[in-house]
Amino acid sequence: MHLFEVIQESKVAEELTTISKTCLATGARINEVVETRGSQLLKHKVIFTNTKGKRNRTVPISNKLYKELHKPTNDKLFSCGYGVAHKWLTKALPDLPKGQTTHVLRHTFASHFMMNGGNILVLQNILGHQKIEQTMIYAHFSPNHLSDAITFNPVTQYSL
């Protein structure tokens, strides 16, 4: 079953959907998103302050997500906390190894960012990593994407 279908069973489905979409759109950790306050939301960007690295980071967001998140408040944007979000994510993705559930949306963001042509240094900044090696762990590629090395290498392109 699809993540967004499973969370529709929850009493806080709308919030869980927005939390999941925000994680997928920003690469933020679940706890960073559920702790976000209205004052951290600026036009087309969100400032994550409750970060693992203890450093604020600003991530751009689409106009559509901004409208979905925006509330005229300095309070938390979400009433449900990390525990509720984790519970439903685990229910939606039961086959993940223990400890991977909370990072799956972050990994998904990073992989798609890179597969769609993103720069790894920009990704490092978005994810808030101090060392590029940390970012490289998140930026894993699917085996199909790696086959692009054959298609896009200069020997193939220039028929050498």
From TrEMBL:
Gene3D superfamilies: Intergrase catalytic core (1.10.443.10). Residues 1-151 form the Tyr recombinase domain. Keywords: DNA integration, DNA recombination. This is Tyr recombinase domain-containing protein. InterPro entries: DNA_brk_join_enz (IPR011010), Integrase-like_cat_sf (IPR013762), Integrase_catalytic (IPR002104), Tyrosine_recombinase_XerCD (IPR050090). Transmembrane segments: none annotated. PANTHER family: FELS-2 PROPHAGE PROTEIN (PTHR30349:SF93), PHAGE INTEGRASE-RELATED (PTHR30349).
